[in-house]
Write a structure and sequence with these properties.
Blueprint: H1 4-17, E1 23-28, H2 40-47, E2 52-58, E3 61-66, E4 71-75, E5 81-86, E6 94-100, E7 104-109, E8 116-120, H3 123-129, H4 141-148, H5 155-160, H6 170-180, H7 193-212, E9 243-247, E10 250-254
Antiparallel strand pairs: 1-6, 2-3, 3-4, 4-8, 5-7, 6-7, 9-10
Helix pairs in contact: 1-7, 4-7, 6-7
């Protein structure tokens, strides 16, 4: 599932391939990809003969200003991504195609139909209406501690709750807690300020490193948990077999020695 570092990569990709180009044709291949508040006719009206600029990421959402009016919003669900191409052969599972006057095309691809395409006048109001919390990379330690310490839940559930902070999914939540030495089931509300501050510091370090490496797991440090996400695989720190459990229906990997309960 695309998480904050992946969406930052999509933002950079959009900046390199799809900005300041006049949209000649807007093709929506499946209306189910549109958010409830967005109609196909409105999307076409907003984008036709317009161009995109000022891309902005917030958690798992990507926004770009539409030069004519408003913003285009993209959520990538579990399988979404952007692909820029030339020619007539669109990528499989393309849900929206923006054909530019220069003959190129930007495709929003989403196989499992769990992403969303939306238009909005104000991204901040749009996110607030959906209960999306602050971007994980923009939270200072004080605000992070305040929001986490109010949760009656496991620490992993707290950091993955998009209304608490936006951007972390399963992979980077596990990685953050592993590197912080915090058990995934640790009680967020009962965790002391020192532990919560440490989680915040590690989270920022993990996300920054992932962004710098283009969210490519193959380029992440070999000592990271991401390379060992199978039960029984040796912990990259202590060598003990990793364990697996489910928290809120999410598969969770951790080291019982390095992350004691």
């Amino acid at each position: 599932m695309p998480e904050l570092p992946d969406v930052e990569r999509f933002r950079q990709y959009l900046s390199a391939t799809g900005l300041n180009k006049t949209v000649e044709t807007v093709e929506v291949t499946d209306n189910r990809a549109l958010a409830d508040s967005t109609r196909p006719v409105d999307l076409r009206k907003a984008l036709q003969a317009a161009s995109l600029s000022e891309p902005r990421r917030h958690g798992k959402w990507l926004f770009a200003r539409i030069r004519s009016d408003g913003y285009l919003g993209l959520h990538f669900g579990m399988t979404g991504f952007l692909e820029h191409f030339h020619g007539s052969d669109a990528p499989r599972h393309s849900r929206m195609l923006l054909w530019f006057e220069d003959g190129s095309c930007l495709a929003y691809v989403c196989q499992r139909m769990l992403g969303e395409i939306a238009t909005t006048d104000d991204p901040d109001e749009f996110l607030a209406a959906r209960g999306v919390g602050p971007d994980a990379m923009e939270l200072d330690a004080e605000t992070f501690a305040h929001r986490i310490s109010r949760r009656r839940s496991a620490m992993k559930s707290a950091v993955m709750n998009q209304s608490v902070l936006a951007g972390l999914g399963n992979i980077y939540a596990d990685e953050t807690l592993f590197q912080a030495g915090v058990h995934p089931r640790a009680d967020a509300r009962q965790s002391g300020r020192r532990r919560i501050d440490h989680v915040h510091k590690v989270m920022r370090r993990v996300l920054t490193a992932a962004i710098q490496r283009g969210a490519d797991a193959r380029r992440l440090p070999r000592r990271w948990l991401v390379h060992r996400r199978e039960p029984g695989q040796p912990c990259p720190r202590c060598g003990r077999g990793l364990e697996h459990m489910r928290i809120n229906q999410r598969g969770t990997y951790f080291c019982p020695d390095c992350q004691p309960r």
